Structure formats: C-alpha cells, structure tokens
Amino acid sequence: MKTIEQIAVELQGYDPQALSAGQVNEFLARLVTPVDATEHVSPFGALGRALAEDVISPISVPPHDNSAMDGFAFDGAQLGPDALALDVVGTAYAGKAWQGTVKPGQCVKIMTGAIMPAGLDTVVPLEFVKASAERIEVPTGVVKPGDNRRLLGEDLMAGQPALHRGQTLGPAALGLVASLGLPSVAVYRRVKVAYFSTGDEILSLGEAPREGAVYDSNRYTVFGLLTRLGVEVIDMGVVKDEPAELEAAFRSAAAQADAIITSGGVSMGEADHTKAMMKQLGDVAFWRIAMRPGRPMAVGRIEQAGRSAVLFGLPGNPVAVMVTFLAFVRPALQRLMGATPTEPVLLQAHSGEAMRKKPGRTEYQRGIVTRDADGRLSVRTTGNQGSGVLRSMVEANGLIVLHHGQGNVAPGDLVDVMMFDGAI
Ligand code: AMP
Ligand code: MG
User: Residue 141 falls within a domain, yes or no?
Assistant: First the structure.
C-alpha cells in the first residue's frame, strides 16, 4: 500500500494546490487497489459484482449444430435453379436428437433449437414452403445452403475465455454464466462504504428548522450513488463539528468500512475541525482541483484496528458532492470493488447556448439533452449552475463536460455530455 507521499513523487507535476481532473484520477488509480477477498456466488448473487477470475467456457455453446427456425431441414447441396420437392420422413423436436437417416430427396420437419439431423445443413422456414404432411416444395431463392442453422460453439467454444477478471457482471453476463452450466462464479467480496455529513449547520431529518441551518441532503445523494454502484452502505448520520464526535466517527467508520465518504469541512477557509481530525487520524492530502464545481477535496487513508479505509473528503455543496463522486469516487470505488473502471461514454450534442469557459480547468454543467425535430441532439443547461442548486441535478439528464483545455462555447458548437443513465 503506497503512502500519499510515495504516490506524489511518482506523478509528474503533482501540486496539491492545482490538480487537473485527469491527475486526480491518476493519483487515485495508484492509491486504491482491489479488496483481496473473493467468494463464489450463484449467477443470481452476482449482479453488479466484479469477476475475480477469468471464466473459461467448460462447454461449447450451443453444444450442437441446431435449427434457428421452425421449418424443414435438408441437405442444401440439392438446391438448384428449380424448386426442390422433398419427402418429409420425420420430425426433430428440441431437446432430443432425431435418430434416422435422411436420403437425397428427403427432409425432416424441425423445431427451433432441435439438433440438426446427421448430414443436413440447411433449414427452410415453414412459412416459405408449400407443404402437405408428407411432401414439401422449396421455392427457388428462399434459402441458400447453410441458412438458418446455428453452428456448434458459435456463441462460445469450449476452452475459450467467456468473461474476464475485473468485468462487472450485468444481466447479459449472468445469462452467459448460466449458459455455460456454471452454478457459481468467483467475484470480489462486497465493498463496505461508510458515509457521514459534517457541519454544525446541518440538520438531520426530523429536526426543527432553525436560522442558518440546512437539512442534510448529501447523505441521501451519496446513499443513492453508492447503492447504484452496488456497495454495502453504512450510514453514520450527521457529525457535529466537534473533535470528540469527529474522532469517534472516523474511528468507527475506519474499523468497519473499506472506504469512508464525508461531505463538508474541507474548503480552504474552513474554521472547523474536520480537516484537522483527518490529518490527525490518517495519511491525507488536501487538494484544490482545477474543476467546477468541486474544487476542494481530501483524499487518503485512515487505519484503525488493523484495517485501512480509503478516505474521500468531499466538498459540502450538494452539486459538488455528486460531481466529485461521479468524476473521482465512482471510478476509485470500482477499482476497490475489483472492477476495471469503465470510462463513461460521452455523447456529443450541439450546445443551445453560449457558455463561458476558461481553459485550465474542467467544468461540469448540468445539461438537458433532447433530440431536435431534425434528429440531431441538442443540449441546454438547467440555468443557475450554482454548486448548491441541487434541483439542477434533478432536472438534468447529464453533465456537459467542458474539458481542461477547452475555451468558450458558442451556440451550435458540439460539446461532450456524460449521460446519467443508471448512475444517477
Ligand atoms: P463546506 O464545504 O462545509 O464549506 O460547505 C459548503 C456548503 O455546502 C455550505 O453552504 C453548507 O451549508 C453546504 N452543505 C454542507 N454539507 C451539507 C449537507 N450535508 N447537505 C446540504 N448542504 C450541505
Ligand atoms: Mg462547513
């Protein structure tokens, strides 16, 4: 496990007071390594988990050549310029092989998924033939030799890697695992993440409103983001800006969890105890990131009871919390979960408005992407981009990413958008 200082010397141009978003992710890729424990779970228990080993296919899928259609199977070599008349000599059902032999001039009625009888390579679908019970006529031009036959192993050949370590198992992968006949797969153990909000002005639900105080929203957005990510969450409530309370919270979180997420108390001018306590209990760096929103952030590790938890001290502003989570915490937690982080797929849309942007920092504007009448994608902002305006995250369906080196945007310019999809 590397210390903050060891990582800092590895990175070119590391300046905690001026990090680009890209440098933050490079740093985190070095700080966070996968949990080491793995377990075997059934496909039903594997959704959203990261594979701990490659899955090698023990069988070929499908295990036999079989029919892709309901129809009649025959030897395609007989197809010629004229219609082909064939005698029906039997029926092949899915699930049991048809045992007879088929001579030239003959065919077998066949169901989708049934094994192709020996020597037959072509299926003419039912709807294309003139058929009586004993005889069919295959018109010209409706099939070529080999049509409508699925080949042995065309999905997967025995011995081939079907899935790779670090892959996050989605619905299709669960089905693929099952299609190989595997009752279980090796996945990394579930990651536990503890989170709490800090600040004397933060009210918990149920508390009476009072002047200068706001209700805690960060715990709820963080809960939602973490749950979507598939980690086990440990909600530690709101912690007052008081050394003993903060110390107890950090110690308890580090003793139980693999990662700790806090919000608030990491800005420059903070007169509170959060930063001091992080520093006292852990190996922590305090960063100013060249981005908007989400400039201040603390990152490091807190050791407790022989365990080590990765710490993400997020800013307090509700939008900054979500943006820093998506940009940095999410890929870092994916790594901790054993998953190979996936780059979000950015789509391009035409900006509906001018946007002022200074090169030298990454900006994330809340965007609403729509399709114009002429079919092209457009994006407009949600209006007030204040980092406290949580409503903007609700109204948006994605974040407009104005990259580090990018300057002003004119109406009609193409901009990148990170769509929220399932992440939010
Ligand atoms: P801080 O980073 O502690 O300076 O907080 C920045 C802003 O975010 C302040 O206006 C805080 O009141 C607000 N804030 C901090 N924590 C929360 C929270 N858990 N829920 C809602 N707003 C918060
Ligand atoms: Mg504060």
Answer: yes
Distance 318 CA to ligand 1 centre (A): 7
Number of domains within the chain? 4
- Region of 393 (left: φ > 0; alpha: ψ -120 to 50; beta: rest) is alpha
Structure tokens at 419: 């769509």
Residues 229-268 pLDDT 10s: 999 999 999 999 999 999 999 999 999 999 999 999 998 7
Pair (211, 284) in one structural domain: yes
- Residue 85 domain flag: yes
Regarding whether 305 and 184 lie in a shared domain, the answer is no
Give CA–CA dist 414/416, Å, rounded. 7
Any domain includes 341: no
Alpha helices in 108-233 (DSSP H): 171-179, 218-229
Nearest ligand by distance to the CA of 238: 1
Q: For residue 51, which phi and psi values (nearest 5 degrees)?
A: -70, 135
pTM for the complete prediction? 0.92
Pocket-testing residue among 317, 321, 393, ligand 1, by greatest number of atoms within 8 A of Cβ: 317
**Amino acid letter at 297?**
M
Q: How far is the CA of 378 from the centre of ligand 2 (A)?
A: 37
The DSSP annotation for 153-181 comes to TSSB-TTSEEE-TTPBP-HHHHHHHHHTT
**Which ligand has the nearest atom to the CA of 200?**
2
Ligand 1 pocket by Cβ (under 6 Å): 197, 199, 201-202, 214, 216-218, 263-265, 267, 270, 315-318, 388
Average pLDDT, the chain: 96
Contacts of 127 (CB under 8 A, 6+ apart): none
List pLDDT tens digits, range 291-343.
999 899 999 999 998 999 999 999 999 999 999 999 999 999 999 999 999 88
Please determine, for residue 6, whether its predicted confidence score (pLDDT) is greater than 90: yes
Q: Are residues 220 and 306 in the same domain?
A: yes
User: 241 CA to middle of ligand 2, Å?
Assistant: 8
Residue 133 — pLDDT band, cuts 50, 70, 90? confident
Ligand 2 geometric centre to CA of 284 (Å): 18
State the virtual CA torsion across 269, 271, 276, 277 in degrees, nearest 10: -120
Mean pLDDT calculated for residue range 172-182: 97
Which of the listed residues 202, 236, 241, 274 should we mutate to test ligand 1's pocket, taking the one with most ligand atoms within 8 A of CB? 202
Q: What is the DSSP code string of 302-331? A: EEETTEEEEEEEE-SSHHHHHHHIIIIIHH
209 found inside a domain: yes
